[in-house]
Structures are given as structure tokens and as C-alpha cells.
Amino acid sequence: MAAKHFLYALEPVALQRQWTLDALLLELNECNFTLRQRHDEREQVLAQLAQGRSDWRAMSAPGQALQIDRQRRLAGYLQERQRAVAALAQACNALVQQREQIIVQIGAAQRALDAVQAHKDRARAAFFKNRLSGEFKHADDQWNVLQTVRSTDGDEY
User: Fold this and answer.
1) Rounded to an integer, what distance in angstroms lies between the CA atom of residue 153 and that of residue 157?
2) For residues 37 and 99, what is the distance between their CA atoms, to the nearest angstrom?
3) Contact (CB, 8 A) for 49 and 78
4) Long-range contacts of range 113-120, CB-CB < 8 Å, 24 or more positions apart?
5) Backbone torsion region of residue 17, taken as left when φ is above 0, otherwise alpha when ψ lies between -120 and 50, otherwise beta
6) Residues 95-141: tens digit of each pLDDT
7) Which of 93, 116, 135, 145 has its CA 20 to 30 A from that of 79?
8) Tens-digit pLDDT profile for residues 48-102
9) How many other CB atoms sit within 10 Å of the CB of residue 106?
């Protein structure tokens, strides 16, 4: 007897591929969030560096009293901010590369899911075509039986 409802045998595969895609999309979201944070941190450090350079220029202006200790501390601060900018730029570059790799993986996962979905759609169409064909055959058989019964009933009169 034919099944009344479509059951896709590869549904676990389709679900697994969907879960893989969902996990990659979550990973991409987290990477984008972290990249945004590092970028914002870098902007803050660049603003601090610009302010420090402005302070340095103000201290070095003609007519200003020479403050060796303050200049030494500011020079150290500027060096530390420069290292922080470089480290954050490196972190951003690494995150951009990671993001690009995730995007490639998402593309592959989406294609794999699309392939299973296309197969499922073809299997569903074949199932309904076969079921409809069976229903037409059954209706045709019933019609033939009915016509046979009518023709034998007509022979008796």
C-alpha cells in the first residue's frame, strides 16, 4: 500500500546541513561583532594618540618651559598608544581574514543545503506524481468495474 504522506528519507541530512549553516552564520555574526569592537577600540586609541601628539606639540611650542619629566612620560605614552594601534590593526586584519574564511564556508554550506532541498523537492514531486497516478489508476479501475456491472445488468433485461 502506498504511503499517504510524503516522508523524506534524507531529512536527517537536510537538518544536519541546516544546523551547520546556522552555526556558521552565528560564527559570522560573532566575528562581525568582535571586528566592530576592535575597530571601535582602534578608533579610540587613534583619538588618544592624536590628543597626545597635540599635547606634545603644545609642550614643544616656542616660549614653553622645558618639562623633561612630562615630555618623557608623554613620549612613553605615545609609544604605548602606537603599539596599541598596531596590535589592534593586526587583530582587525586577522578577524577580516577569519570572516572571509567563514563566508567561504557559508557559501559551501548553503550550496550543500540547497542541493538537499532540491533533491527533496524532486522526491516530493515524484511522490505526488506517483500517488496521483495511482489514484487515477484506481479511479479508472473502478470506472471499468462499474461499466462492466452496468453492461452485465443490461444484458439481463
Assistant:
1) 7
2) 14
3) yes
4) 113/14, 113/17, 113/18, 113/20, 113/21, 116/10, 116/13, 116/14, 116/17, 117/14, 119/10, 120/8, 120/10, 120/11, 120/14
5) alpha
6) 999 999 999 999 999 999 999 999 999 999 998 888 877 676 776 66
7) 93
8) 999 999 988 888 878 777 788 888 999 999 999 999 999 999 999 999 999 999 9
9) 16
Asked if the structure places residue 89 within a domain, the reply is yes
The answer to the question of residue 112 being in a domain is yes
Per the domain annotation, does 149 fall within a domain? no
Q: 130 to each of 31, 59, 144, 147, how far by Cα in Å?
A: 47, 88, 21, 25
Let me know: does 63 contact 37? Beta carbons within 8 Å. Answer: no
- C-beta contacts of 77-82 below 8 A and 24+ residues apart: 77/52, 78/49, 78/52, 78/53, 81/45, 81/48, 81/49, 81/52, 82/49
Number of helical (H) and strand (E) elements in the chain, helices listed first: 2, 0
Position 146: which residue type?
L
Supply the range of the domain harboring residue 19: 11-121
pTM score, two decimals? 0.72
Q: How many distinct structural domains can be found in the chain?
A: 1
Q: Is residue 45 part of a domain?
A: yes
